[in-house]
Amino acid sequence: MKTKTFRLLSKMMVRTIKQNLMQFIAIIVIGAIAVTLFVGLHANADVFEERVNTVYSEGNLADLWVTTKSYDKEDINKIKTFLEEGESIESRLYMPSESSAHSIFITVVDKIPTISKPFGKIEENSNNTIDDFIYVDNDLMTNSSDSYSTLYTLGGDFSFTFDISSYSLEGVAGLLEDYVKEGGENIFMKDSIMLTTTVDGTMDHPENITKASYNYSVVLMSEKRLQRIYRELLEKNYDESIVDTLYNYSTLLLGFNNEDGKLFSPNQYVLKLNSNRDIDKLKDQIERYYELKSSNNLYMVTERSGMPFYMTISSDVSQARSFTYVFPFVFFLVGVLVILTTLSQMILKDRTQIGTLKALGVSKRMIMIHYISLTSTLVFIGTLIGEIIGPILLPKILGKKYAIIYRLPEMGYHFPILYGILTLVFFIGIAIFVTYIIARKEISLKPSESMRPKLVSFKKHRKNRSLRKTRFFSLKMAYRNISINLGKSIMVIVGVLGCTALLVCGFGIEDTCNYGIQNDLDLFYSSDLTIVLNNYKTKEELDNDISKLELEYYEYNVHAATTAYKTQDATISTNVYIIPDESKAVKIDFPKEGTMVSKSVAESLDLNIGDTIHFTYNSIDYSTKVVGIYQAFYYNGFIIHEGSSIFKNASDFRYTIIEAGMVDDTKTEEYLDYFSSLSYVNEARTPNHWVEMTNDLMSGIRVMTNAVKIFAILLGIVVIYNLSLMNFKERSRDIATLKVLGFNQGEILRSLLIESLSLTLIGVAIGLVLGYPFMLGVLENNIVSLVSYLYHIYFKTYIFAFLLTFGVAVAINILLSLRIRGVRMVESLKSVE
Fold it and tell me: Which residues, in sequence order, are bridge partners of residue 238?
C-alpha cells in the first residue's frame, strides 16, 4: 500500500511540476536572487576584511605610533618600561617628502624593521645590503594612472625633496657662498633639498595599503644610505675643505639632535602590543610622561584608528559589512513574501486533489509530507543556487573597486558558512512552517468538502440584472477579485512596493553622490586650474612665475588641516580654508569678519550662528564667530577671509593652493604641463580631475548600489511575472465562465489588467514614497569619512522607477493575456475530476 501511495504522490508531483513549471522556476529565481545578494555581500565583506588583515599581519603593522618634535635618548627607555611581556618597540625617522607629484614619507631606520616591515612582493638588486638599502613602494613602480605620475624602475634614479624653509637657514647659508663649487649651488639658500639615489629595492608595506594616487607612500631607507647620498650632494656643490664641517653640523642646521652620532635621529617610535592590551591606558601613561618632562617634546600619540591609511580602508570595511544587512533585508522580505504567497496559493488551488487523495485512502501524514517535500525542494534549489553564485560573483564585482584604491593580496574564494547555513535553515524552515499551516487546514477537511470548490461569501446581495447591462463591469470584476483575495492582494502590493523602493534607493544613492559633487563643483571647484603647492613660496615669488601666463584671474588660498572646538571637551580634526576677501574661486558670500562653517562640522561641534569656534593655524591659536553654515559634499571645514582681523598679528600665510581661470581653454594642457614642471608644485588639475578623484573615492558605494540596482530590476521582473502568472491561473475558472457568458477577449483582458495594474500602482506609489527614507537608512549606515552626504533624489529617478516597474507589469500582463484563448471552458469549470 505504501509503495502504491508513494507512486501516486510521485506522479502527482511530476504532474504538478509540469503544470506549474514557470511558477516554480520563478520561485527558484526569486530565492536565488535574494540569497545571492545576502550571502554574496557577506562573502565580499569577509574576503575584503581577510585581505586587509593579511596585509597587516604579514607586515606586522604597529598598534601605536609615538611621534616627537625632537629627539631625547631617554624617551625610548622610558616607554619600554610601560610595555608588557611580549610587546616591542622600534624607532625611526619619519620625514615628510615629495617625489615628483607624489607625497611620500622617507622612513629612516638602522636595519630592516620587524614592526611595520616590508612584506609580500619584494624585489632588490645587489646594491642593497644589510645596512645600506632603499625600498620604494611597489605602487610607485607601477602607478601610471594619470599624467602626473612617475614610473620608477628597479635600478633607475629616485629623487626626493624635503622642506627646509621653516629652519631659517638664510644667515648660515650666506656664509657658505664663497665655498660653492663652480657649476654647483648653495643648496641651503633654497626652500627644499633634493636628494637622489637609485631604486635598489621595491616592497609592499602595511602603511602603503592605500595606493599612491590616493595617499602618501612610505619609502624605507637605511641610515647609511641617507648618509651616503647626503654627503654626495654636499661634495657635488661645495669645496672639499668645507664638506666635512657641513656634514658634521648638518643635524644642527636642520634642527635635529645628534647626541648619538647619527645624521638624523629618530622622531617616531612604533609599538607592537599584545592583542588584549588596554591601548587607552598606555596612551595616558606615555602622554603623562611627556607632560612631566621639563621640555615636552611630544607631538602626538596615535593608534591605528587615527592613522590616515587605516581610517580610509577601515571605513570601506565597515561599509562592506553594513551593506550585508541593509539591502539584503528588503530582498529577503520581498522574496520570502512572494514565495510564501505563491506556495500557499498553489496548495489552496489543489484542495480538490487533496480531497481526492483522502477519498482514495492516502493518509493525512503522507499528503503533508508530499507538499512539504515539494516546497522544501523548490526553496532548497533556489537557496543552493544563490549560495553557489553569491560568494563567486559579488566579491569579484566589488573587488574591482578595491583594486582601484588599495594594494591587497590576491582574492580567494570564501564561503560564509554560518550565514550560508542560517540562510538555508531560515528559508526552508519558513517554507515548511507556512506549508504546514496552509496544508493542515485543507487536509483537516472531509474529502467531500475538499472536493468542492471553496465558496465565496458576499456581505451584500444586489438585485439580479442583465450582466451585459452592468456598467463598468471590468472595474467591478477586478474590485471583486481583489476583495475576495485580500491577503494575496496585499502580498502583491508588498512585493511591488519592495522592488520599487529598492530601485528608488539604488538610483537615489547615485543621485546623492552626483548632486553632492555638482554642488561642490559649482561652489568650490569651478576654477579652470587648481595648483597644489608642496613648498612655501611668497606671493612675490609666485607672481613671478604666474604673471607671464595669460589668465583671466588667479588667487592664492590656504587649505590646512587643523583641530577645532567649541568647548575643549569636544575637539575634531577638520580643514580651515583661508581665501581672498573677493574670491572668484569660492562662490559663497559672507562678511569679512567671522567664518562660514560646513554643516557637517557644525553638527559635530553643535555650532550655531553666533557661536565661537576655536582652531589652530601655523601653531597659533585663533577664535572667530560663526556667521553662517553652508552645505558641502567634500569641501568640509570652515572658511575665513584672508583679511579677517583675527590674522592681523599672523605671519605670512603659507599658501597651499592656486586657483586660476583660463582665458583660452585650448591652452589648458599647456598650462598644466607648465605648472607640473615647477619644483614647488605637487599637482596641477582641472575640475574634471577632481570629479574623477571624488568618483574614485565613492566607487565603493557606486559599485555596490549598481549591483543592487541590477538585482532589484531582476527581482522586480521575476516577482511581477510570478504574481501575474499566479493571478492568471487562479482566474482560469472566472475566465472560462465569462467566455461561456459571451464576453470577448478584450473585456476579459481589461478585467485582469485592471486588477493586476491597480495592485501594482498602489505598490509602486508606496514604494516611491518609501524609497527616500530607505536611502537615508542605507547611507547613514555607510558613512564615508571624507564626505558629507547631501541627500537628494532627482525627479527623473521617480519617473524612471515608476515607468520601469509599471511598464514591466503592463508588458507581462499583456503577454500572459495571450493565454486567454487557451483556457478550456469545460475543463476549467469542472468541480471534481
Answer: 180
Q: Which grid cell is 253?
A: 642646521
CA distance 636 to 627: 16
d(CA 391, CA 382): 15
Does an H or E element contain 46, and which?
Answer: helix 21-58
Query: Strands 102-109 and 217-222: what pairing?
Result: parallel
Q: Which residue's C-alpha cell is 553632492?
A: 516
Nearest to 515 by CA among 709, 778, 698, 660: 698
- 430 or 534, higher pLDDT: 430
Residue 455 has pLDDT above 70, yes or no: no
Q: How far apart are CA 64 and CA 51, in angstroms?
A: 21
Residue type, 572: I
pTM for this model (two decimals): 0.69
Could you tell me the three cell numbers for 282? 598606555
* Range name among 10-19, 496-505, 686-695 with the lowest pLDDT average: 10-19
- Say how many Å lie between the first and final Cα of the chain, rounded: 23
Give the amino acid at 157.
Answer: D
> Are residues 720 and 756 in contact, defined by beta-carbon separation less than 8 angstroms?
no
For residue 454, give the DSSP letter.
P
Do the strands 529-533 and 657-662 form a parallel or antiparallel pair, or are they unpaired?
antiparallel
Dihedral of the alpha carbons of 405, 409, 411, 413, in degrees to the nearest 10: -150
Q: How many CB atoms lie within 10 A of CB 742?
A: 9
What CA–CA distance (Å, rounded) separates 62 from 273? 8
| Helix (H), strand (E), coil (C) string for 300-364 | EEEEHHHCHHHHHHHHHHHHHHHHHHHHHHHHHHHHHHHHHHHHHHHHHHCHHHHHHHHHCCCCH
* Domain parsing of the chain, residue ranges: 1-60+308-455, 88-272, 472-522+696-833, 529-685
User: Could you give the CA distance from residue 728 to residue 503 in angstroms, rounded to a whole number?
Assistant: 26
For 634, other C-beta atoms within 10 Å of its C-beta total 21
Q: Which of 310, 344, 315, 84 is nearest to 218 (CA)?
A: 310
Q: How many Cβ atoms from other residues are within 10 Å of residue 513's Cβ?
A: 25
Q: Report the distance separating Cα 215 and Cα 210, nearest Å.
A: 6
Locate 260 and state its grid cell: 648619538
Contact 228, 132 (CB under 8 A): yes
Looking at per-residue pLDDT, the higher value among 514 and 741 belongs to 514
Q: Which of the residue ranges 349-363, 424-438, 447-461 would you say has the lowest mean pLDDT?
A: 447-461
Phi, psi of 179 (to 5 degrees): -105, 5
Element (H, E) at 638: strand 638-641
Cα separations in angstroms, 424 against 370, 380, 428, 436, 504:
20, 7, 6, 18, 29
C-alpha cell at 344: 500557499
Question: Quick one: how far is CA 194 from the chain centroid?
Answer: 38
- What is the per-residue pLDDT across 366-404, written as a single tens digit (0 to 9) for each? 888 888 888 888 889 989 999 999 899 888 887 877 887
- Confirm if 152 and 217 have CB atoms less than 8 A apart: no
Query: In 3-state terms, the chain is what percent helix, strand and coil (to 5)?
Result: 55, 15, 30
Residue 454 predicted with pLDDT over 70 = no
Q: Which residue is it, cell 635618548?
A: 73
Pull the grid cell for residue 396: 569579484
Note whether 190 and 124 are within 8 A (CB): no
